[in-house]
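Let us work through a complete example step by step.
Step 1: write down the sequence.
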Amino acid sequence: MPTLAAGFLTLILALFQGAAMASNLVTDIERIRQTDKSDQIDISTTVQSHIAAGTGRKDVERRLQQQGFTLHEQPEAADKTRTLIAVRKEKGLIASLGFHDEIRVVIIFDNDKVKHASGLLIYRAL
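Step 2: predict the structure and record it as tokens.
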């Protein structure tokens, strides 16, 4: 009986871990697009749930790159903050015709820690 309980616990932990790994920024944004077909959607709340204030710059950059974002660092502002713009084009079946979704994430860093994060999901057409 203890072996059965241990096996069941292992299965539950594996399922939980898989669900946590499947929930990433891109997946959550794709879910938003399934229900909202607007040309431009504010996804800041979703971005902030994945990129919390105080998170280190290197960690944020690594996670965004792992999810297919292209990073564009902006010049340092007068107040010494740095802005990073991360862009990912979602390519669908008709992407070859020039239609696609663009995920645009803007992150402001202060002393290499996230100060603010925001984002937009933009439908691009010819």
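Step 3: interpret the result. The radius of gyration is 18 Å.
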